[in-house]
Amino acid sequence: KVTGDYDRSTRIASLIGWTIGLLTIAGGILLLITEQQWFNGLTLVGIGWVLQSAAAQSRHRAIRREALQQVKAEDIMTRECPLISTQSTVSQLIRDYILATGQRYCLIVNGDKLEGIVTIENVKRVSKKHRGSHLDKIMTPASELKLAHPQQSAASVLGQMDEQWVDHMPVVENDKIVGIVSRESLVRLAQTRNELGV
User: Fold this and answer.
1) Which segments of the chain are extended strands (E)?
2) How would residue 136 be classed by pLDDT, with cut points 50, 70 and 90?
3) How far is Cα 68 from Cα 143, in angstroms, rounded to an integer?
4) What residues are paired with 62 via a beta bridge?
5) What is the per-residue pLDDT across 156-166, written as a single tens digit (0 to 9) for each?
6) What is the CA radius of gyration of the chain?
7) Backbone dihedral angles phi then psi of residue 67, each to the nearest 5 degrees
8) First to last CA, the chain
9) What are the residues whose beta carbons fall under 8 Å from the beta carbon of 2, sequence distance 6 or more?
10) Mind listing the pLDDT tens digit for each residue in 5-29?
């Protein structure tokens, strides 16, 4: 199975990277102690630490991906997602959604059609004097969004989020919004499944 091979390869590569990082740190410490080469020794320790950190991150991603492989987007998505018109203003969004509910994102629609998404990051970039602007001026348009399908694996959704550097992904079926998946819910589910050995 391709996914299994990829995850296994990632785990092996991260173990090799972690080991090289450990050896590099040991070499740096050895230079510090025996040769008194502070600059070279500390440089090697720093490089080793970076290698170990990168290897650990790769390993964690592979573990998360493996834990989410059997889960579908529809199993983890939030079905009640906030929808707001393109003609609503930033100040209305802040007042009626963000401050009232604590929501950190909102899907922007024109009728039933997804037009884009506004996240707390989009809102923070708008100065107070421009909060009367319509949301279609600050949203990330639908054409730039990656969309998930209900039957898509949660691991695949998380992979797309990582590629796009986004925290939320709308789930669409037959051009209709059926929910939204958040990175936070995916990571939490992966952690829970790993803790239970599922």
Assistant:
1) 83-85, 105-110, 113-119, 140-141, 168-173, 176-182
2) confident
3) 27
4) none
5) 898 888 888 88
6) 22
7) -65, -30
8) 19
9) none
10) 666 777 787 788 888 888 998 988 9
| Tally of residues, the chain | 198
Q: Tell me the Ramachandran region of residue 181: left when phi exceeds 0, alpha when psi lies from -120 to 50, beta otherwise.
A: beta
CA dist 87 and 139 (Å) reads 11
Place of tokens 């050995």: 197
Q: How far is CA 154 from the centre of its chain?
A: 12
In the block, tokens 């990175």 appear at 183
Q: Report strand pairing: 105-110 vs 176-182.
A: unpaired
Question: What is the C-alpha separation between 135 and 148, in angstroms, rounded?
Answer: 23
| CA–CA gap between residue 4 and residue 7 (Å, rounded) | 5
